[in-house]
Design goal:
Blueprint: E1 2-4, H1 8-21, H2 36-44, E2 50-52, E3 61-66, E4 70-75, E5 83-85, H3 93-103, E6 108-112, H4 116-129, E7 135-139, E8 142-143, H5 159-164, H6 169-177, H7 192-198, E9 209-210, H8 213-225, H9 229-242, H10 252-262, H11 272-277, H12 291-294, H13 299-312, H14 320-334, H15 339-350, H16 358-361, H17 367-381
Parallel strand pairs: 6-7, 8-9
Antiparallel strand pairs: 1-2, 2-5, 3-4
Length: about 375
């Protein structure tokens, strides 16, 4: 290494000359072979200098046996005399890495492939210091769905945001573990303990890993549906309350029954909100897509008979069997069938002709609510 007193203007002039000549823009320092005593005297007089690593005499290829990419060869002339210490005495990144890793006895360095160009400089420093080189492995970058490097501007997000969106930590860990690594048995769903036992560097893939949101949602859904009713409800309830939904939260029997209805449609906990919103009377409204149903001649008698039978029901709640019996009675009394029957009743229950099966939904609702909604639908029909 040597002290270099070149000014920014001198460095820029050399770069411009190299560009014009079509050669490497490497620094050709006139201070490369100064005696140390002369350089120290120059610094003592107040001149600023950086410390550079001398590369001109290193005429060879540096070969790295990368743990992920195999043998990688770097010609020494890829880099010129690079800086180790800035003029203010601050060490640069590559020098810091080598010294820090050596002092901490780091045996393996696993880092992103974008750091591969730094490796030649670091290998030179290790060699210059007479230190053993650690094992290096350069892992593939995580790419977005357009196969571009993930960035904050292109949809990357934080762990906190994933939590806010209703993802489970176990699913995130599982998903991230499979970005650039694969299980030896090809498993997609892997617990943390199994990750520890089955992980090996030789399973790391040098190709770029795609951050696939669809796969992440699928994986989260698998973990979500494997939860016990109690745990699933404890995760889901905060999202419902945050959305301001008026529901019988204290009725755990109702809560667990509702989960059996909705969890097969949920990929994240946040997905629960629109499903449970259909059970909140304050959110009920007749949506525009119901207009076609209101145009059918059969709708008015269906709604009237539906309300009549709901009103006559002896208890305040309904089982699946009781709902199906009432639906059949409406069919027999009005002659309506198919979509003319089912969609008309669904509009009177959730305000739209398509959605969750009524035989699953109606048992989660009470008689008072169903009558009130039927009245709103009838009024809308006129």
């Amino acid at each position: 290494a040597y002290y270099c007193f070149m000014t920014d203007e001198e460095i820029e002039l050399q770069r411009q000359q190299a560009q014009s000549a079509g050669t490497h823009a490497h620094i050709n320092s006139p201070y490369e072979n100064w005696e140390l005593t002369k350089a120290l005297s120059e610094r003592a007089s107040g001149k600023k200098a950086v410390v550079r690593f001398k590369t001109r005499s290193l005429k060879k290829d540096y070969v790295l046996n990368d743990l992920v990419r195999g043998e990688v060869s770097f010609p020494s002339d890829m880099v010129g005399d690079f800086v180790l210490l800035r003029s203010d005495g601050m060490p640069v990144y590559n020098f810091c890495c080598v010294v820090d890793d050596h002092l901490m006895k780091i045996s393996h360095v696993l880092r992103a492939e974008e750091h591969l160009p730094n490796t030649l400089r670091q290998m030179m420093i290790y060699e210059g210091m007479g230190w053993d080189l650690p094992h290096f492995g350069h892992i593939s970058l995580v790419l977005d769905e357009d196969r571009q490097k993930m960035s904050k501007r292109r949809g990357a997000t934080s762990c906190f945001q994933f939590k806010e969106e209703g993802y489970l930590p176990e699913a995130i860990l599982n998903f991230v573990a499979l970005l650039g690594w694969s299980h030896p048995d090809g498993k997609e769903l892997v617990s943390v303990d199994e990750m520890k036992k089955s992980f090996s560097i030789d399973r790391l893939n040098p190709s770029g890993a795609i951050f696939d949101r669809v796969k992440l949602k699928w994986m989260n859904a698998q973990y979500l549906r494997a939860l016990s009713d109690e745990t699933l409800w404890n995760h889901t309830e905060p999202f419902l309350k945050k959305a301001g939904l008026d529901l019988p939260y204290s009725d755990k029997k109702w809560a667990y029954q509702s989960l059996q209805t909705f969890k097969t449609y949920m990929e994240t906990f946040a997905d629960s909100v629109p499903f449970y919103a259909s059970l909140d009377d304050s959110k009920f409204e007749i949506l525009p897509e119901a207009s076609e149903v209101f145009a059918w001649e059969t709708t008015k008698p269906v709604l009237a008979k539906w309300r009549e039978l709901i009103q006559a029901h002896p208890s305040g709640s309904f089982s699946e069997a009781e709902f199906l019996k009432i639906q059949d009675e409406v069919k027999n009394a009005t002659g309506a069938k198919g979509k003319n029957l089912f969609q008309a009743i669904r509009v009177a229950v959730i305000g739209k002709p398509h959605g969750t099966e009524l035989k699953l939904l109606v048992p989660l609702m009470n008689k008072k609510s169903l009558i009130a909604r039927a009245d709103i639908a009838s009024k809308k029909l006129g």
